[in-house]
Structures are given as C-alpha cells and as structure tokens.
C-alpha cells in the first residue's frame, strides 16, 4: 500500500511540475550584469528580444547594419520540452532579395524553470552543449514572467 501511494505521489508531482511550450509564452524580464533584458516568446514560434538597448522584433526586424543592412529579418525559437532542462535554438532568417529565404541557427542554450513565473536562461556562446545550467555562469540570466500572452 505504501509503495502504491508513493508511486502515485511521484507521478502526480511529476505531472504538476513538468513544463510545456505554452508555459514559455509571454514576456519575461531580468537583468544581466546590471543591464535590463527581456524576451517575449510567442505561440507562433517568434521571439522578441530587448538587451542592453538592442531591440529585435523577431516578426519584423529591419537589419540595421552589416552586409544585410536594410533587409527584413525574422527570429524564431525551437525548444525541446521532453526533459526538465529545455534545450532551445534561436534561428534567424531573412529574404535575400532573390525570393530565397536565408536561414541559420545562431544561438543555442538551455532553459530551466524554477517555478511557473521564473526560469534560468543559459546562452551557449561557446557551443559546449552542456546538459545542465551552472547558475553562477556569466552566460545565465534569471527571468521573471511580466505578462502572459
């Protein structure tokens, strides 16, 4: 009887605290090295990012400089919610003016929910592909839910 009750509790709490993609939707804010930052994750896979004065609207971003200056860029995210530590990719795309979409993954990382209104966001700038998040890493931000979508 005790084993059955214990198994039931483990399953119940495992389901209660598992995250799904819809838990990510919304605007999340935090600070990184004293600088304000926010990410808004949309249900259609687009992301909006505001970091240190840089504002990237993933749905319709005019590229401000470089060889693609003036082109309309888009930023989408993919996330694997099959594990407690969520792997994500940010994918940039733009129309190269020849009616061909150029697309590339430009940043990967991890998300670890602390609770339903807070998570750790790790950016894997060195492409090390870690399995877990070190909260003391300079590449980690703690984000808090500002609003649902």
What does this structure look like?
The chain has 149 residues and is mostly beta strands. The protein has 1 helix and 10 strands. It has one helix spanning 2-16; strands at 26-32, 35-41, 47-51, 54-57, 61-62, 72-80, 86-95, 101-115, 118-123, 140-147. A 10-stranded antiparallel beta sheet has the order 4-3-2-1-10-9-8-7-6-5, with no helix packed on it. A hairpin with a 2-residue loop joins strand 1 (26-32) and strand 2 (35-41). It is globular, with a radius of gyration of 18 Å. The protein starts with a helix and ends with a strand. Mean pLDDT is 83; it is low at 1-17.
Sum this structure up briefly.
The chain has one helix at 2-16, and strands at residues 26-32, 35-41, 47-51, 54-57, 61-62, 72-80, 86-95, 101-115, 118-123, 140-147.
Give the secondary structure arrangement, pairings included:
Layout: H1 2-16, E1 26-32, E2 35-41, E3 47-51, E4 54-57, E5 61-62, E6 72-80, E7 86-95, E8 101-115, E9 118-123, E10 140-147
Antiparallel strand pairs: 1-2, 1-10, 2-3, 3-4, 5-6, 6-7, 7-8, 8-9, 9-10
Question: What is the straight-line distance between the termini?
Answer: 44 Å
Number of helices: 1
Strand order of the largest sheet: 4-3-2-1-10-9-8-7-6-5
Structural class: mainly beta
State mean pLDDT (0 to 100 scale).
Answer: 83
Low-confidence stretches: 1-17
| Helix coverage percent | 10-25%
User: What sort of overall outline do the alpha carbons produce when their principal axes are compared?
Assistant: globular
Strand content: over 45%
Q: How many beta strands in the DSSP annotation?
A: 10
Rounded to an integer, what's the Rg over CA atoms?
Answer: 18 Å
- Can you write the helix and strand succession as a string? HEEEEEEEEEE
Sketch the major β-sheet. Answer: 10 strands, antiparallel
């Amino acid at each position: 009887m005790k084993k059955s009750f214990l198994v039931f509790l483990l399953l119940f709490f495992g389901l209660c605290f598992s995250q799904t993609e819809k838990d990510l939707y919304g605007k999340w804010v935090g600070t990184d090295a004293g600088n304000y930052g926010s990410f808004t994750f949309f249900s259609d896979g687009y992301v909006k990012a505001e970091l240190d004065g840089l504002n990237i609207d993933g749905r319709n971003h005019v590229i401000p400089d470089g060889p693609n200056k003036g082109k309309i860029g888009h930023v989408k995210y993919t996330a694997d919610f099959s594990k407690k530590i969520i792997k994500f990719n940010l994918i940039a795309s733009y129309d190269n003016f020849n009616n061909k979409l150029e697309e590339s993954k430009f940043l990967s990382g991890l998300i670890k929910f602390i609770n339903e209104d807070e998570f750790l966001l790790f950016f894997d700038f060195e492409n090390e592909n870690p399995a877990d998040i070190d909260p003391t890493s300079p590449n980690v931000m703690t984000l808090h839910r500002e609003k649902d979508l």
